[in-house]
Amino acid sequence: MPRLDVNRSGEMEAFVQVVERGGFSAAARVLGMTPSAISKLVGRLEARLGTQLVHRSTRKLQLSAEGQQFYERAVQVLADLDEAERAAGADAEPRGRVTLNTSVSFGTHVLVPLVPRFLAQHPQLSLDVALTDRVIDLMDERADIAIRWGPLPASDLVARRLGETGQVIVGSPAYLAERGTPQQPADLAAHHLLDFSYRRRMPDWPLLLGSKPLDVPVRGRIRASDGETLRNLALAGAGLARLSRYHIQHDLDAGRLIPVLERFNPDERAPIHAVYLGRSERLPARVRAVLAFLVEHVGCDPRFTTKPPLNPR
Q1: Which tens digit of pLDDT belongs to each residue from 122-154?
Q2: Which residues of 177-201 are buried (b: 16+ CB within 10 A; e: fewer)?
Q3: Which of these, 5, 113, 174, 229, could form a disulfide with 237 (CB 3.0-4.6 Å)?
Q4: In whole angstroms, what is the distance from residue 118 CA to residue 304 CA?
């Protein structure tokens, strides 16, 4: 069938809206059409492709394997089409919504304070911010960008480096006054150690004894799913925590948290990246705008570029 005889973008948009809205009626309301018209567009698409994309029932809608694959490609095609039309027009300003996933600590202490400045610079852009210390699948979560720490495993993700940070063991002044300040790694056995609870956590705290690496097992009575909760527990005097320097720099400067065992701390610097799917040259303008903003503002933040001086104990 000649391409000019087929409203392929209309069929594709109807199908994507059915998937994202969870049904034909909801998609019809968004597109200003009737449910029967939406159903006809999706049915015509399935007939042309020769495969069933959606399994229909009275209670729910489920994608076939082919439907899931087509949906993922269709989202990219429609985004490219929107981008091409905007670039060809007089107004090429980035617009739309960007979904950004990051840790609770980075979101709280770095991203959230930057949001007003970002929105002022890009009045046509909106943000969906999801905070979790769990490593997500960008495609499953439909996230445009995720912020990740440490070396990146081989994957289809593309990365932009934002900076780096180290780790430090800290406790509150009240906790150290009550329990004593550890002088040697072996002293940690007598302390409450606050630990992460997510699956990819490090089971040990890496230290250096002379020139030899020493891994201290963490078997704390209190575990938490994110770094911000561990920070608050440490501030409350619940125990010692090992946290990123950028995360607690303000607490260190104010004396709310005290670094311990610094002469045993290898303080290896872990890189921080913004990661995304797709080739850089094909990213929508809305995603490129967020990436450029992060590189500019996180990259010049001294918490991610230098190792601040501490008062080791």
Answers
A1: 999 999 999 988 777 776 777 889 988 877 766
A2: eebeebeebeebeebbbbbbeeeee
A3: 174
A4: 19
